[in-house]
Every structure is written in C-alpha cells, then in structure tokens.
Design goal:
2 copies of one chain form a homodimer.
Chain A lengths: L6 H4 L5 H9 L5 E2 L32 H13 L9 E4 L2 H12 L5 E6 L3 H8 L4 E6 L7 H11 L3 E4 L13 H14 L3 E4 L24 E6 L11 E5 L1 H15 L4 H11 L2 H28 L4 E2 L8 E6 L5 H10 L2 E2 L1 E2 L13 E5 L5 H18 L2
Parallel strand pairs in A: 1-11, 3-4, 3-5, 5-6, 6-7
Antiparallel strand pairs in A: 2-8, 7-8, 9-10, 10-13, 12-13
Helix pairs in contact in A: 3-9, 4-5, 4-8, 6-7, 10-12, 11-12
Chain lengths: ~375, ~375
C-alpha cells in the first residue's frame, strides 16, 4: 500500500542536526556541535505568583506585557515598530516556519547566505522553496551579488542573518547593511532578518538591524530568547512591516493558537527586572572567556588546518579548512572518541558552491574541555584531510 | 506595490472565532461562544522542583515521562501504540496543522463531518485542501455516505471527531465506529481522529477510538490536555500508525523544534499524581451540573425555536433552529446585550449544505448566568428568525 503524502512531506530528509544532538547528549562527550546555552549560565526559572493567571487560552499575538517590552527594545535599535506589530512565537524557529507559510509556494525562489542556518533550509524546503546561496564573506554578502541575483531570480524574499551569523559568526559592516537595504528598497523584495544572537556581543561592532534602514521594502524581523535565557521555554518573537503582520498572526493562530503563556509571563517579568542586566553581563563574561579559550586552542592546533576569524559575538567559530576533507566521515570518527563538531556541508543550500568547513560552538562546553576537544578534533581532521 | 505571497497566505480569511473571543473577554459578557475551561475548575499550576531541569533544548518527540503516560493511556483505550509513536505537540491545534503539512497539497480532497471544528477548516484550508462535508447525525456519519464519497473523491484523508463532536456534541455509536473503520480499511484511506473531549463524560457511552478498529488503513490520533487541565500550557499530543510517524516528527521539528518543556513536565507530574483523579471527578461534576442547567434553560426557552440533544460529554450544545435565521446578525445584536454564542455557519465546510444553527458552550459561564443568558439569546433569536 502506498500512502499519498504531500510533496512537502516527501521532501523531508533526515535531519543531521537532530541525529547529532542525540548522540552528543551521551554523558562524557565533549560537544561543540549544538548551539546550546550552558546550563550553569541560564537564569533560574521561578514561576511563583505567575502560574495560575496564565492557565486559560490567551491571545494569538502574545501577552501584552511581553509584546510591550519587545517593542520597546526594538525601538532602541531604531526599528519603526509599535507593539501592535510584535507577534510572540513558539521559539524563533516558528517565525521561520511562518515566513515559509506566508511566502513560499512550490518552486518559489529564496535568496540566502551560503552558508546559512541549516534549520532554515529545512523549514523553507518543506514548503517547496528553491534556494540561491549568496557567498558570505566576513563583512557580509556582496550587495552587487544580491542585486544580480534578485534581477535574475525574482525571489519571494531574501533571508539574512547579518549579526553574528550562524554558522559563520560573521557580522555585516554598517556599509554593507546600508547597501543591502538600498538594493531591497530599489527592488521591493521583502527581507527576512533573523537576529537571534544580537545580544551575545564580546567586542563592540555595529549591529543595527538592516530592517531599520528599509524605507519601502516589506520586512520580517525574527528574534529569540533561547540564546540569552532558556530555550526549553520555546518563546521567540517576530515583528514586521504593516502589510505582512495580519497574515502572520492568522498563520500563527492556525498553527498552534498561541504560544505557551507561562513562558511568556516569566520572560516579561525577568526581562523587566534588575536581575536581567546582571544575568546578561555574567553570560557575556563567561561566553567571552570560552570564546577566548577556543581562540587560543585553535591557534595552537589549527594554524595549518584552517582559516577562521574570532567572532565578535554569537556562539560559533567557523573553520574553513585549507584542504578538502570529508567532514562527515571525520565526525563519525570523532564521535567514537567522544568529541563532536558540526560538519559544514549541511549549512550550504543546494545547489551552492561548497567548501570544506566546520562549525564549533564555544558556549556549551566547560572551559577545561575546550583545549582537549579542539586538540582531538585537529588530530582527527589531520587524518581525514586530503 | 504588490507583495507576492503564497497561495496559502492569500487564502486567509479573517477568523470569526478569534474576533468573537476578543469581544467576549469584555467584563460583564455572558459568553457561551468559546470552548474554554472554567477558571474555577482548572487545577492550580505548581512548578516547584521542575523548573530548572527543563531550561535546555529538549527532544522533538517530547519528554519521555509524558510520552510514556500518554502511551499507557492509549493502551487502556485499546490502541496499538507504543511510546515510540507518541509525539507531544504545541496544543492539539498543532497536530491538525502537522496533518495538513503531511497530507495536503494544493487541491487535495479532505472528507470531514458537516458541521465540524472550524479551526480545522481554517488550518487545512491554508494548505489548499478542498473539503467534502459528510452530513453528521446524532449517531455519527453514514458509512455508506463515506464509502461513496471516498470512491468519488479519493481524499488524502478523512478527518473525524467521533466523540462529543465539536460543534455538535454528538457521539458515534459503536456500530458506526466499526462500520467506518471497515470502509477505511477496505479503501486504505488514512483516518485523522480528533479526540479532545474524550474524558469529559457525563453519561456512559461507547468512546472507543475508531483508530483501534483499523487493521490496515493508516491513522493519526490527536489528543489534548487543554480541555481537562490548562490550555495556556499549549501541550497536546498525537499518535500514529508506524508509516506516518517519522514524517510527523520531522515536520514538528521544522515547525518549532519541540514543545515547551515546563508545561510537559508539569503535566507528567500531575497526570501521574493522586490529585489527578480527584480533579477529573470534580471537573466532570461541575461541568455536568452546568450541562444540566443549560438543558433546563433550553427546555424553558428554546422548545419552539430549535431541536437539540443533551450531549453525553464534551463542552457544547448544538441547536438546530426550526426556522431559518441570520445567526451572524443575531450575534451582533446579542453582543450589544452582553451575551455571546457561536453562529453555526462557520462550522460548515464550503461547499456543504448548511442549516441555521448555533453552538452553546456550557463549561465556562457560571451556573447563575446560564438561565439568564439562554433566555436572552432565545429572545434575540425570536426577533431574527424568519
């Protein structure tokens, strides 16, 4: 018997990240694979006094107190966004899914960075998106590349992660941010700007959202609380230009009615408390130390093997290997020696030009394991590089 | 400027239920419109000792403890379903959305009851489903109708709510449950069985899921905790036959990674506690009293205006009006007099034969308001009936 599924379902491939994360949760494994906050850095959750008020069904847009804090925060970034255009989502991943639902018909073209966030490739691919990857350099994409690709492909939208990008850690310069906005305004192509790492900053750089520079092109801005608080809560948000908002809210409603209210209520209280700034300062100090530890370890073990930049923020080092390497085979070998990384391949949207690379997360492993893990990975890669 | 959205997005219509629920949250309104649990019946939420363990990202399938309790419960219903085929969802609404993602391409046919749950019409419609409504009687759909519709339409799947159906409150007889299963087995058409009201039972009736009778046809069974605990938690679940499960998990992952863990952890503890049975007994007693109060009020005020059955379970009375009536206009009049109901129209999938009807919820209004609200609605409908 054959069951007729949607083309969407037939397009599903097994998720590498999912499989790897399961393996790396084995005790004793030093994992640089995920993008997980460190347990010792996450704030304690305290629901005292909140729980009973949020048992009932709630509004699809989200809790007013949380939306209001988000809108205030976006205003400080220069975004033209009132509270009426903030939608709380079940994690930032849902924002990506809603964008797919809103824009993507079978065969719709989407421009994005190469490499880019692999779960975006997966989530938009489910709707039948066809991708064109724009080569990403340390200072951003090339605005002329973008202009040419728009002219040639007429994409449904452009998806970018301009700040502390996943997987690369790269951060667009102010000049490129403005130039990208100009191209989008001239062509009226919507921008989906994914910005989950914004607040994890270890060295001052420009982080102005590209959305704030747009004068004409529609936009959706995706934000997350997972990286700075507790991802288990599954609370993220989006904001958008006026023309897109009501469609996004209705798609949110048909997806899951609304986001869990207890998580929203806790976040509204925590973000508005004195403890929040203290928590952020501590998180940034600890992650900054781990970043430095990884940079030092890489300098010791990867000089010959790879090129990289110490990221100004975010959670990742991106190593471009100097020799070609079957990084997936290397990962399998690494797992037998209780260390894990993310191979670079799945971050490249097909059919993009790929290069051998890996992504190393520095927030989750204890500092004393960073040197040991990096040394081990260098040794294994040395065996696999051609 | 025109933004190119997906056909999916262009299909969005304003959601009546959403608009009505907003109005009915005005203080002083007696609302029979929603399907909301009563605040005074919901269990208190207590996260003591749970919170910090569930801050990190979790498994897409859900928390093992909760999945295991769900699997045990499904086994007692006679369902052949191991814990490996239980997926925790962000409310039962997400289960419906995932089913749409899995099965529905543009123009796919879906058979469902007429009337049926309006948010299902909305959620599947977003994916381009075309509906064929099967007339629903008090003992279920007609299995011969089903057989003919399958032969003629070759649907992607059949969606049914056999137990305490929304909006009708009807409950399929055992004979019809078995006959429906036989037709599905003979034709290999998947069944999506939505069962959120199962545990709200005021009079003993057969409630065996139709899925348990299937020998060959694939199935997805959707369950909810919203009606018996606290909908604000947004935790529901699905179980499925083996061939469909991995696709559903991967679609869940690309939708929101996983369901919020705090809600899952609380539910696992509460469902496994002695307090749970006590809570259910109290909830059923209170809702049963409200059901009886509404039945008495209807007998006093609706004898001439409508036909109905006192439901054996669930949350709703469904009134089939004896004269044609513009129930939407009547609702607007009702709202000016601070009372609300759901007009029947949006529960009919287009292009189905409709009849004038309303849905009245009896769980949410305080008993002393039921008589007053029902009397007022009868008065207003008398003015609007032709």
């Amino acid at each position: 018997m054959t069951i007729r599924l949607s083309r969407r379902a037939e397009r599903l491939t097994s998720s590498l990240i999912r499989d790897i994360l399961q393996i790396t949760q084995r005790p004793g494994v030093i994992s640089f694979a995920g993008g997980l906050p460190a347990a010792e850095v996450m704030p304690p959750l305290d629901f005292e006094g909140l729980a009973d008020d949020y048992r009932q069904y709630g509004p699809s847009e989200g809790e007013p107190a949380l939306r209001s804090l988000i809108a205030q925060n976006l205003s400080t970034l220069g975004m033209d966004c009132s509270v009426e255009r903030v939608l709380v989502t079940s994690g930032s991943q849902q924002g990506i899914d809603l964008v797919g639902k809103l824009f993507v018909d079978e065969g719709a073209k989407v421009l994005l960075e190469a490499p880019t966030y692999l779960a975006t490739i997966q989530a938009l691919g489910v709707y039948g998106a066809e991708f064109k990857g724009l080569p990403l350099a340390a200072d951003g994409i090339d605005p002329d590349d973008l202009r040419r690709a728009i002219a040639y492909r007429r994409p449904a939208f452009v998806y970018l992660i301009p700040t502390f990008q996943n997987p690369s850690g790269f951060c667009y310069t102010d000049e490129i941010r403005r130039a990208v906005a100009k191209v989008l305004d001239e062509t009226d192509i919507p921008l989906v700007e994914d910005d989950p790492y914004r607040d994890l900053v270890y060295r001052p750089v420009d982080r102005t959202p590209i959305c704030t520079y747009l004068e004409r092109a529609p936009w959706v801005y995706l934000g997350s609380f997972s990286k700075i608080t507790a991802p288990g809560l599954r609370v993220g948000y989006l904001a958008s230009s006026p023309s897109l908002f009501s469609g996004l809210v209705r798609l949110k409603q048909s997806s899951d009615l609304h986001t869990n209210r207890i998580g929203q209520a806790w976040l509204a209280r925590f973000l508005g408390s004195a403890g929040f700034d203290e928590h952020m300062a501590r998180m940034i100090r600890i992650y900054g130390e781990r970043r430095d530890a990884m940079q030092a370890a890489l300098e010791r073990h990867f000089e010959e093997l790879a090129e990289w930049r110490a990221p100004a923020g975010g959670l990742f080092f991106w190593l471009r290997l100097t020799r070609e390497c079957d990084t997936l085979a290397a990962l399998h070998a690494a797992l037998t020696r209780d260390v894990a990384f993310m191979p670079g391949d799945p971050f490249f949207p097909a059919p993009a030009l790929r290069y051998s690379a890996l992504r190393l997360n520095f927030s989750h492993a204890a500092p004393e394991n960073i040197e040991r893990g990096v040394a081990l990975i260098a040794e294994i890669l040395g065996e696999f590089a051609k």
